[in-house]
Amino acid sequence: MGIRKVSPEAFLNEEFDTAVYTQLSSKHYVKRKDGKPFENAEFYAFPADFESAFSPYAAVSDIFINGIYWDNDAPAFFTVAEMCEKNFKIEVIADITCDIAPQSSVPSTIRASTILAPVYGFDPFLEKESAPYQLNNIDIMAIDNLPNELPRDASVAFGEQFISSVLPEIEKGWGSKVIARATICENGQLTPYFEYLQDYVNQLV
Length: 205
What we know:
Elements lengths: L3 E2 L2 H6 L6 E2 L4 H4 E3 L7 H6 L4 E3 L2 H4 L4 E4 L13 H4 L8 E4 L23 E5 L4 E3 L7 E4 L9 H22 L4 H6 L2 E2 L2 E2 L7 H7 L1
Parallel strand pairs: 1-2, 5-6, 6-9
Antiparallel strand pairs: 3-4, 7-8, 7-9, 10-11
């Protein structure tokens, strides 16, 4: 789209005369509750020990695009109460993650939207859905099957990556470290990289 990417630090501290965006990693939007330094491994293993550090970004952003893997024990980016504060500047949320509140990283994602009706409004003061594009409300796009909107681009990109990166590994057989890393289940058990799915599996059996 031609929008310039800047660092998270520049996004917070500099002023720009054109549209810019930044991409955050976990270390930017969460922090330890005890004040100790952030470690990725600790956050992934013990997400309940962390709290949101996202508020500085909410104070300078117009649009928030959320596309993370979220654990139910991890903190949400913000609360509905924080969405009512004057320094909360986000007007549009594209929640690609699309976990539904109250178990969600975005509390205003109260339902999935659809391709035919992609946007609904959220009134943080009343804590309920509203018509989109209304003053003082926040517009939510939360399409849970959003990739279906780009079938050709997705198919071409996937095909190119598959041929160049995956097919050679398949030809190596089970000796491929890539295939081993991508294998979710083997002999009826989740492999070590995917053991975080065990709680979900337990709900199905």
